[in-house]
Design goal:
Helices cover 28% and strands 21% of the residues. With 218 residues, it is an alpha/beta fold. The strands form two sheets. Strands 3-2-1-4-5-6-10-8 form an eight-stranded mixed β-sheet, sandwiched between helices. It has a two-stranded parallel sheet with strand order 7-9. Strand 4, helix 3 and strand 5 form a beta-alpha-beta unit. InterPro entries: NAD(P)-bd_dom, NAD(P)-bd_dom_sf, Polyketide_Oxido-like.
């Protein structure tokens, strides 16, 4: 499969690239100031907002690990989804894009989203609110193929690659066998690639949790 990975030199994107190459996929890396960190791939030194449809080439799937960060105007997270719409417009390509746990509902009542919980970080709330607004925009386009993938509340950079995860499809926080809303970067990357390979969860928001992490691995 031919893939384009946006943010390929970041914490999540680099894991997606490595796992994709290990699975035998052909990868094109979109990596601003990559500094040679995307070995084994074609590298385009651009940020998301500089991209054109021509940059996608013959890729069937786009995986976006783009994150605006905590210092940027949170509106950039909505604008990212507007850019995805532009890149997909008139094509039959699919994008699998990172979203945020903060944009999910807190429980099955769907009465409150994570970012609306009293005491929630104002910075994170701004990011999560704009992610939701961006997802709302792409939902309006019935002609586009996309999946928005949310991590769990705890998104563990150092956690192991268990290759064992669960998927929630109701836009709400989910919990693993340990009773935690938890996922590792490695397992999230695996889930995104599985979604790509199996063409799962079209036009849906999903969330991923690592099933369990043994105490000695945590």
């Amino acid at each position: 499969m031919k893939l384009v990975v946006i943010g390929a030199n970041g914490n999540l994107g680099s894991r997606v690239v490595k796992q994709a190459l290990n699975r035998g996929h052909e990868v094109k890396s979109i990596a601003y100031m990559s500094n040679g960190n995307c070995e084994g791939t074609e590298v385009i030194d651009k940020n998301l907002f500089e991209m054109t449809q021509e940059d996608l080439g013959e890729a069937e799937i786009i995986i976006s690990a783009f994150g605006g960060g905590f210092k940027a105007d949170p509106v950039i997270n909505k604008e990212a989804y507007e850019k995805y719409i532009e890149l997909l417009d008139g094509t039959n390509k699919k994008i699998i894009a990172i979203a945020g746990a903060g944009s999910l509902y807190t429980d099955s009542t769907h009465s409150m989203r994570e970012y609306e919980v009293p005491g929630y970080s104002e910075t994170l709330a701004g990011i999560s609110r704009n992610i939701k607004l961006g997802v709302d925009k792409i939902k309006e386009r019935a002609d586009l193929n996309w999946t928005a993938v949310c991590p769990s509340r705890k998104f563990d950079l150092e956690g192991p690659h268990t290759n064992n995860y669960i998927v929630g499809t109701d836009e709400e926080i989910i919990y693993n066998e340990d009773g935690n809303s938890y996922v590792t970067y490695e397992d999230l990357a695996t889930a995104m690639l599985d979604i790509a390979e199996k063409d799962l969860y079209n036009r849906q928001v999903v969330t991923i949790a690592t099933v369990t992490v043994k105490e000695e691995e945590a």
